[in-house]
Structures are given as C-alpha cells and as structure tokens.
C-alpha cells in the first residue's frame, strides 16, 4: 500500500508551516518540514512507499497537488495543519478525500492537535486527527488500513464516526530519538536544499533537530506545548555527529546546518558532548542553533570549536516583569551576560524580541527596543505576540477577552505575513504590529549598525556578505512598510 504525506499550498506563496509562528516570512525564510519528514521516514522505514509533497517549497499549486496524490493512489493521506492556514488546510484535505474516495485522510500538526473536534466539524468527510507527535501513529494507521483493521486500538487519535468524535488513549511520546530515521536520508529522497532558505544562515542550508520538547515553560511557545506535551528528549551526541556527516555527503552544496531544536542548550553539558562528537567526527560544516541565555561560556567555546557560527536566543522583552509573567525563566542580567559571553566565544547572535505579552505597555516596549540596542546582536527580529490554540497564552488571552477575533484567517495578513489579534489595555493589535515595524527600522537603520554590517560584508564577502545581501533582498521591501497601518 502507498501513503501520502502533504504540506499543502497556501496563498500561493512560501508559507512556512514548520516555523513556530507559521506565515510567509518577511525575510524570505522557508523552514524545512522536519516533523513531516520524520513521519515520512517512519512510514518508509516500516515498508510503505510514500509520496511526500512539500507544496510551498516545490511551487506545487492546488490542482497539481490533487493530481499527484490521485496518481499515487494512496490508501492513507496525512495533511499538515497550522492555525493561519487552517480553513484552507481543511478545504484541501476534504478535496483530497473527495478525489481519493478509497483513502483514509487524517490531519496532523499543531492546530488540529489543539482543536481536533472543531476541525472535524468543519471538514466532516475526513477520517480523523493524529494528536501530537505522529511518527508511530502514522505507521500504525498505515498498517491498519493495509490490513483492513480498525483504529480504536491505535493511541493518539481523534476519530470521526459520522460526526461522533472518539479519542483513543494518549500516545506515549517517543523516548529513543535515535530510533527515528535520519532526516538526511528522507531529505535526500524527497527534498532539495535550494528550495529552502533561512535568513540567519548561509545559503543553501539544511535543518535538523537533535531533541524534542523543552524543559522550560514559556507560555507562548507552540511546539513544546501542543506537539510534545512538555516532555524533553534528546538524541545521543554520536547520532547527531553521524547525521552532520551525512548532510555533507548527500548535499555537498550546503553551506550551513541549522539545528532547529526549541532549546538546543537546555543542558550545557550535553552541548559540550555534542560539540566534542562533532569535533571527533571531523565536522567542517558551519552550523547555527537555538540557545538559551543560561548556556555557559565553556559550552559556547566548545560550540565555536565544533564549527558553530551563530546562536539564536529568545530575549523576548526588556522588562523583567514581562519575562516573569510568561514564565520565561531568565533575567535581564542573564541576557546581558549571555551577550557578553557570546562575544567572548566569537559567536554571532540573532536576538528574538516580542511585543504584546501580558503586562505590555508603551514603556515596556521602549525598554525592549533599548535592550535590543544594548545587547547588540548581529541581527534581530521583532514579532507581535502570536497566540496559538493549545498554548497557555492563548487560553489566558481568550479567557480575558483580549482576542480581537476567533477567525483564524486573521492570524496573518491577506499576503500571509504575521499579524496580531491581541488587544491589550492601552495597546491595540494594530499598535503592536506598528511598533514592531518601527522597532525594526530603528534597529537596522542606525548609523552604527549600518557601519558594522558594511565592515562585516567587506571582510567576509563570500559568506556573511552573501548571506546579508540575499536576506536583505527580500526583507528590504518590508522594512519601510507599516504593516499595521495597511490593515487598519
């Protein structure tokens, strides 16, 4: 039996479903679909021939998607979902069901996992939703479809029985991540590095993950709360190093590996162990990773020695009160010390900042921008709060009546860019979007920053210069545009 795993098109653009805030990104970034790739690899590992379509990356429109799936004649079709695209996702999943009447069609991903019954009510022809992590659930579903069996004994499902919804017992998350197929092998069979772009990395780059979940408890973070249920698990250092070597062997054109763990540096000792394994394996590819402000200097130095070029950190806010209210678990002092440690270790930093968390005021927003300039990251992003179903911050804002709408189309603009639907006391959603636009201009158009970037590009024209110019080519059209005013 054949199966199909589909990342559907949305708005005809490079919609990045695997991003923590799915949208068409102003920087041109398009994430690799690593969760879907793991699911695809699990199906193939179990012996099922699988059609894997990443429509946003491959430029596949709706008609071509429907045609290619129908030609494959799969018995099981899995369709990814995200909040902003959910109505389109449900429409296209229903079209896949209609075009393949003998197939079982299931939804995957964050939005469907958070609101499975609501999704199935809106798309009554679908067979169900796979809740949370779906690698092993997909395999058991495929085996049941192939053998003509039922689904009741398969954990991790919400089944549609003529609009009577039944949840099977929760599935225990995978503990042994080394048992999953290498993403490098799945990518090699199905995907092309040139189709993807990550603005903070050298082009072309590839993405992998070395852990699932996160031990931290940030109230806004999507993947740990919705897919991974807060359980933190890691791959062994040797397994990570082996995949780095496979990436280099399979894709000699790639210039960087992006480690897209929610928090690669949750344990500094493990970071050192992974770095040691990379050094021992002879890794020569630069890499980038998401870190936390608590990572030690020794771990940073080991990362640098192992080829790490840049680290990405969620600073979030310049207000300690706001950091505490979102249970970030870090302090302003730790953020400042982290930035200094990164400079001492010779690592570039991409800093992430948010607007619109609980307690936000015009004064805390100004403190955030001042902090961003004081921290002096190589690059920075300023996002309005994106509250997604299944997260604590969504529940908090929904309970307090601060969500402007429950029409999930409004989570992005008509062009697919990030938008905001949170109205705080004294700060509307438009105010938050406008602040982010202004903060971006004030950060990037400072004479001191332009001088810094100019010198960096002259010193490293083929690496940092090339990366900067490619990212700026897409980003510049948004830099002078006021998104909030356009939507007002």
Task: Label this structure with key terms.
488 residues; alpha/beta; Rossmann fold; pyruvate-formate lyase- activating enzyme; 2 domains; 7-stranded mixed beta sheet; 15 strands; globular
Strand order of the largest sheet: 2-1-3-4-5-6-7
How many beta-strand segments?
Answer: 15
Percent helix, as a range, is 40-55%
CATH topology of the largest domain: pyruvate-formate lyase- activating enzyme
For the terminal residues, how far apart are their CA atoms?
51 Å
Residue windows where pLDDT falls under 50 for at least 5 positions = 484-488
pLDDT averaged residue by residue: 94
What's the total helix number? 20
Overall shape: globular
Q: Find the CATH superfamily of the largest domain.
A: tm_1862 like domain
Nearest-angstrom radius of gyration? Answer: 22 Å
What portion of the residues fall into strands of 2 or more residues? Answer: 5-15%
CATH hierarchy: architecture of the largest domain: Alpha-Beta Horseshoe
Q: What is the number of domains?
A: 2
């Amino acid at each position: 039996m054949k199966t199909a795993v589909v990342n559907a098109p949305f708005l005809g653009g490079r919609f990045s479903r695997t991003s923590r805030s799915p949208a068409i990104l102003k920087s041109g970034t398009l994430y690799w679909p690593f969760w879907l790739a793991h699911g695809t690899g699990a199906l193939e590992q179990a012996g099922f021939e699988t059609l894997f379509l990443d429509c946003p990356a491959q430029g596949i429109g709706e008609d071509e998607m429907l045609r290619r799936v129908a030609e494959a004649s799969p018995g099981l079709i899995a369709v990814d979902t995200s909040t902003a695209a959910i109505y389109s996702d449900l429409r296209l999943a229903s079209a896949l069901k209609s075009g393949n009447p003998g197939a079982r069609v299931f939804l995957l991903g964050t939005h469907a996992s958070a609101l499975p019954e609501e999704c199935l009510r809106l798309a009554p022809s679908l067979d169900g939703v796979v809740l949370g992590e779906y690698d092993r659930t997909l395999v058991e579903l495929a085996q049941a479809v192939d053998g003509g069996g039922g689904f009741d004994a398969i954990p991790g499902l919400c089944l549609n029985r003529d609009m009577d919804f039944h949840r099977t017992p929760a599935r225990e998350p995978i503990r042994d991540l080394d048992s999953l197929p290498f993403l490098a092998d799945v990518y090699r069979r199905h995907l092309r590095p040139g189709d993807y772009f990550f603005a903070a990395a050298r082009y072309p780059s590839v993405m992998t993950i070395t852990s699932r979940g996160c031990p931290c408890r940030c109230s806004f973070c999507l993947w740990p709360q919705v897919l991974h249920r807060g359980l933190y698990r890691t791959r062994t250092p040797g397994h990570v190093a082996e995949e780095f070597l496979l990436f280099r062997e399979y894709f000699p054109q790639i210039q960087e590996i992006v480690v897209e763990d929610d928090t690669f540096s949750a344990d500094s000792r493990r970071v050192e162990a992974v770095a040691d394994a990379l050094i021992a394996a002879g890794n020569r590819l630069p890499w980038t990773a998401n870190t936390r402000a608590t990572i030690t200097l020794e771990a940073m130095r080991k990362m640098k020695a192992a080829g790490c070029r840049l680290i990405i950190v969620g600073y979030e806010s310049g207000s300690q009160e706001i950091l505490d209210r979102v249970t970030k678990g870090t302090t302003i002092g730790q953020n400042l010390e982290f930035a200094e440690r990164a400079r001492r270790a010779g690592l570039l930093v991409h800093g992430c900042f948010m607007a619109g968390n609980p307690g936000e005021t015009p004064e805390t927003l100004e403190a955030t921008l001042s902090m961003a300039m004081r921290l002096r990251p190589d690059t920075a992003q300023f996002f309005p709060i994106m509250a997604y179903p299944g997260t604590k911050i969504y529940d908090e804002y929904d309970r307090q009546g601060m969500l402007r709408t429950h029409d999930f189309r409004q989570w992005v603009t008509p062009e697919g860019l990030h938008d905001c639907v949170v109205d705080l006391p004294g700060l509307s959603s438009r105010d938050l979007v406008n602040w982010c636009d202004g903060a971006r201009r004030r950060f990037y158009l400072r004479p001191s920053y332009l001088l810094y970037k100019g010198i960096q590009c002259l010193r490293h024209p083929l690496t940092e210069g090339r990366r900067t110019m490619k990212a700026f080519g897409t980003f510049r059209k948004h830099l002078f545009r006021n998104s909030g005013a356009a939507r007002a």
